[in-house]
Amino acid sequence: MKVYKFGGASVRDAAGIRNLANIVSHEKDNLVIVVSALGKTTNALEKVLKAWISGAGNYFTILDEIYTGHLSVITDLFGENSETRGKIDVSFAILRECFLTSPKEDYDFEYDQVVSYGEIWSTIIVAEYLKKNFKDVEWCDLRETLLTDDRFRDANVLWSESAKRVQSIFDFKKKRIYVTQGFIGGTVAGHTTTLGREGSDYTAAILANMLDAESVVVWKDVPGILNADPKWFPDAHKLDEISYKEAVEMSFSGAKVIHPKTIKPLHNKNIPLYVRSFLTPEENGTVIKADITLRKIEPVFIKKEDQILISILPRDFSFVMGDNLSRIFHSFITHGIKVNLVEASAVSIDVCVDDERTKVDILIDDLKTEFSAVYNENVEMLTIRHYTPDALVLITKGREILLEQKTRSTVRFVVRKEHS
């Protein structure tokens, strides 16, 4: 069997869902199809959530706009009155009822309960459309199958119990095609969780691991994995194949094609991952696997935007290593801040993190009795894998470099963001 994952761009409208069905029609093996929320639904639901929590009062208006968008897709695919519309109406009604209560103080908890609906709606629509075209199609609610802990917005999978449920539910003796959600799971207590923003790739890898899949195909709106973002480097070109290690390095550095957690479950069982274009499905794309054909190594350019560079110094000018370092990073973990780059000297440490200002402010407040901290905002982290002298000049020319970190195969710069 294989796992197919379709992102929001591939199912943003009725034409996209028809294209999905066309791609599926060429696959004769058993399939698990992991689907993200339609288009920009996740972003829209985040706006609904913030309006509800802030008391802005316009959250029902935004939710109605989301409903209208889904209804347009349903009408295009199924006509004016359909069983699919009835299912979506019920689901929207349940969410609307939630907004009649007061939000809990735990934002991350409420985030998962609300934003997860995007995947529920998209998979209902996709599953119902596939049932019109294929036999043996089943919709699966992954909130009841993929068990996680209660770390909301960044949940950890409970592998042993989840594997038992996944292998029981995805029974290919009963059905050939299963449609399920990316990004979401559920606790033993029945609360919905999410695996982190853009976590649908990770979901596909988890299911592939638990079901011993032959391969995973992630369908994107790009021809494969490129050596740079074409919006940054217009001459970027496709990499035909890369290793698991290279994919991990790229995703950690900020490459947006694959979610950082995706590779490990596949590497553990030597399952190849293909990144292919839903716009040109006949093309091969990029394959990520254990052994690749040795070819000329070329530079790979990665830009991670919306960063903050934090500089932390002990107030007593003691060495930053040892207990001080342990205290600092324990605070980062406690406040859910992921570190993208670290540079330490004897009496200070520089840390580059995503610009999540609320979390950063809380972190600095937590450390203030023992450490002073300042930060540079509006910075970017630029990475070159397999750098050359020309490549270094290409991305740093005219830039203010705040920090540089270099190894044999990788160089990273934290630079001031260019003004457009």
Structure description:
- The protein is an alpha/beta fold and 420 residues long.
- The protein has 2 domains: 2-289, Carbamate kinase, CATH 3.40.1160.10; 300-416, VC0802-like.
- The protein has helices spanning 14-25, 41-54, 59-78, 83-98, 107-115, 117-133, 159-169, 200-210, 244-253, 263-268, 323-334, 357-367, 389-396, and strands at 2-6, 31-35, 137-139, 177-181, 184-186, 192-194, 215-220, 241-243, 273-277, 286-289, 300-314, 339-344, 349-354, 371-385, 401-406, 410-416.
- The strands form 3 sheets. An 8-stranded mixed beta sheet has the order 3-4-2-1-7-9-10-8, sandwiched between helices. A 6-stranded antiparallel beta sheet has the order 12-13-11-14-16-15.
- The longest helix has 20 residues, at 59-78.
- It is globular, with a radius of gyration of 23 Å.
SSE layout and pairing:
Layout: E1 2-6, H1 14-25, E2 31-35, H2 41-54, H3 59-78, H4 83-98, H5 107-115, H6 117-133, E3 137-139, H7 159-169, E4 177-181, E5 184-186, E6 192-194, H8 200-210, E7 215-220, E8 241-243, H9 244-253, H10 263-268, E9 273-277, E10 286-289, E11 300-314, H11 323-334, E12 339-344, E13 349-354, H12 357-367, E14 371-385, H13 389-396, E15 401-406, E16 410-416
Parallel strand pairs: 1-2, 1-7, 2-4, 3-4, 7-9, 8-10
Antiparallel strand pairs: 5-6, 9-10, 11-13, 11-14, 12-13, 14-16, 15-16
Helix pairs in contact: 2-3, 2-5, 3-4, 3-6, 4-6
